[in-house]
Amino acid sequence: MTSHSNPLGKRLDQLIAEKGLTKAEFSVRINVKPQQLSRWLKNTSFQWDQIKRFAAALEISEIEFLGLNQGESR
To answer: Is 51 domain-assigned?
Structure first.
């Protein structure tokens, strides 16, 4: 994993790995070049449309992407 000043970038790295994907494979899923994904990961924040796009590509909800459901019991 790369180091990030963006906690959501770190979260995205974690989710990509959990899905068993490489960043290159994930880039294909979201239809961007790997270099663009790397730039996004280094940004200090994501826009809502990016969060929705990432969550859809990972087949999870935006809430799960943001980690807001981690305190819920199952």
So the answer is: yes
Mention every residue, 6+ apart, whose C-beta is less than 8 A from residue 70: none
pTM: predicted TM-score of the whole model, two decimal places: 0.80
Name the amino acid, one letter, at 70. Q
pLDDT in tens, 26-54: 999 999 999 999 988 887 788 999 999 99
Say if 72 falls within a structural domain: no
Please give the tally of structural domains in the chain.
Answer: 1
Cα atoms in the Cβ-side hemisphere of radius 13 Å centred on 54: 23
Rounded Cα distance, 29 and 47, in Å: 18
* CATH number of residue 51's parent domain: 1.10.260.40
CA atoms of 64 and 62, how far apart (whole Å): 5
53 domain residue, yes or no: yes
